[in-house]
Design a protein that fits this description.
The chain has 13 helices and two strands. It has 364 residues and is mainly α.
Amino acid sequence: LLSNVYLPTPKNIDYFWCFGSLLLVWFVVQFVSGFFLSSFYLPSVYFSFDSVDCFYREVLFGSFFRSVHSIGASFFFLFIYFHLFRGLYFSSYSYVSTWLVGCLILVLSMAVAFLGYVLPWGNMSLWGATVITSLLSAIPYFGSSLVEWLWGGFSISSPTLSRFFVLHFFLPFILAIFVFSHILFLHVSGSGNPLGINSKGRSLMFTPYFLINDLLGFVICFIIFLYLVIYVPFFQFDSSNFDEANFLSTPLHIKPEWYFLAAYAVLRCVPNKLGGVYFLFMFFFIYFLIPFLVSSVYIVPLDFFGSIFYFMFICNFVLLTVLGGLPVESPFVSVSAFSSFLYFVYFVLLLDISWLDYISMIRL
């Protein structure tokens, strides 16, 4: 704590550097609210839906804590994406250790969120889990056996929910270790800044100068968060998830939560199952490769053309998110395929631009 209080921080950082601290706050919110929810949850295909419903209706402040946990997940991933894309723009992948641990946090958070999405045992939870876990069967030789082992049988059942519940409870502790490591690496390497200059000798103490910025960002986000929790707690829920899981009733349109939609759009635009799994894997793994493929001798924001490509990439990512929530029919599938192609093309352009800048710098 004292190291945070007296941490030297570049003078010229702005509110884009608040997302990391907001992520830490919402991680604690998710951890505490999830611990409270787990005290009343029964991992069984016969009781899971009713236990969640009973908790929401009968337990004192149960509806509040469930809304905090579900909407808090959306805020958490919103800040993760802001934090990731801010780092991408300002070349934060130059801090290799910090960047790689951050990517691990992203993937692990996705896994925890998926497990949590299945636990309420609504109809969309069942079929979403069926679709995603079935992707493992695309792995050659042992894929089908792996799916059966994960399910604990030949379909999703009570053993599956028990395993998902244990993992959903246990993985946040592992995630907390990675979060601590991420902060530790940040303290060792120091924080970046918008100009990418060496900030040694031009720094201020984190407290009170930048703590005020973080507190202001937290207050604004907390007001919005509290409004959503109290007045519109179901705004992000799919209507199918208000019905108990039914193996005989498939939802007309299966889709995950909004923070999975971009990856889901990439997955389903590929007609081949194994190919879809491969591109889904690359959707996340590409971020692990950036520090090793992109020349990052100097930590600087993107130049003019790089900025144009970057904002096109952001717009394309938003488009992928929208497409992931639309039905699997023409022309959405074709547009998703083209948008997925552009998603990966951006990283090729980032590689080319980076090395051209590096070569020109050497010649100078």
